[in-house]
Write a structure and sequence with these properties.
Layout: E1 21-24, H1 26-29, E2 34-41, E3 44-51, H2 55-76, H3 82-85, E4 95-101, E5 111-117
Antiparallel strand pairs: 1-2, 2-3, 4-5
């Protein structure tokens, strides 16, 4: 569960481990210890960007997410070998950017959508 305030009564989002991904993104965040966490919400990919002054803290976060995903994958795919599961721990996106699209009618407006490829 993700809370955006310490005193929040309800979570802002519930991130299921099966759809959770973490990648280091120092350039995108503007911090050498930046981490991008992606998850699904209502069939849309959502992002949370986090950083800490201590790089070890972010490495610990990254490893904790990977360990939780690894355990989930071991339970979800009990017959799979660890070697087969490791590539599924995290996804690195080759290309990320915005795409604008419209519907089939000329009167419909364009929608800007964030797209991940990789």
């Amino acid at each position: 569960k993700y809370y955006n305030r310490n005193d929040a009564k309800e979570p802002k989002a519930i991130m299921k481990i099966e759809h959770l991904n973490a990648t280091f993104q120092p350039e995108k965040i503007g911090n050498p210890h930046g981490l991008q966490i992606t998850y699904l919400k209502d069939n849309s990919t959502r992002n949370i960007f986090v950083y800490h002054e201590d790089g070890k803290e972010m490495v610990d976060w990254f490893n904790a997410i990977r360990a939780a995903r690894f355990h989930y994958l071991q339970v979800a795919f009990p017959g799979a070998s660890d070697i087969d599961l490791v590539p599924k721990l995290s996804r690195n996106y080759l290309k990320e950017g915005y795409m604008e699209k419209t519907g089939p009618k000329q009167t419909e407006g364009f929608k800007k959508t964030l797209v991940y490829h990789g």
